[in-house]
Amino acid sequence: MAQLGTSVLGGLITELALVGWSGSKVGIRRVWNDGLKDIVVLGIIRVATILFGLTALKYINVSFTQTIKSSGPFFTVILTYVLLGQRTGWRVNASLFPIVLGLVMCSLSDASFHVVGFVAALLANCADCIQNVLSKKLMNRSYTASQLQLYTSVIAAALQISCVLYNEEASTRSQSLAFYKSNNFLHLFLAGLAFYSQSVFAYAFMSLVSPVTHSVTNCVKRTFLITLSIYRFGEDVTFLNWAGILLVTFGVYSYSIATKFEQTTITTLRIKSENGLKSRDTLGTDIKSSTTSFNHQEVKIV
């Protein structure tokens, strides 16, 4: 709740600073008339991503959670094809194998393995990939990064407040208030601020790149988090764990190279195709000019 609350407050301040109150009203009116369903769906997915991620952290180590989430390219390829209809070549598909193999090795050797935590991390991963793909789809429909960040945060916060009020008994509300009044409030505020900053940069970055590139960059971030969490929390990591983490990292790197190669190939073929069409049009024009000139000469001879 602290994460989404901070995101709503920060997003509102950012949107007002960028476009002002009149511009914000225009954006809200457009969402209400045209894109409310998409924003609600994206808000639900955002809540699911947070809840699944926190559930995973409750049962398994941070390093294991981040390793599972590093398999994002595997799910992104599938979801990008299902939701956007974009296909990937054999090089990209082959680079997914070490990611999956490394994930399996980590799962079999991690001391904190728990079925609930493992499934929650996988679901959080899937939800995060769906969120990235849908966000890119909405940005292509002229939504800005700040608008998506604000509107989805509002929907997600409203949904989470409803769940909290529905599930929380009256006897536990006083305990919740005491929890917020303690020193934990500072930790919650810092967590919310970090979450807001991360989401702002994520949406801004998403507006500039494809979902695949965003997923690869996300994996680099998770590699840093894995290493940091191991040393920060003193987690027990076996040789098979390290091998799995390295395999996932290698797979992500291979995936990045394969994706870049495919994009370069597609761009080259497109340029050649355009040049071929231009040459064909030029040739057709020359033939037409020659034919016209020949006809004129025939007329003069007659």
From TrEMBL:
It is a multi-pass membrane protein. It comes from the Eukaryota. It is found in: Membrane. One of its GO terms (cellular component) is membrane. InterPro entries: EmrE-like (IPR037185), Sugar_P_trans_dom (IPR004853), TPT_transporter (IPR050186). The chain crosses the membrane at residues 39-60, 66-84, 96-124, 186-206, 239-258. Keywords: Membrane, Transmembrane, Transmembrane helix. Residues 18-256 form the Sugar phosphate transporter domain. This is Sugar phosphate transporter domain-containing protein. It comes from Albugo candida.
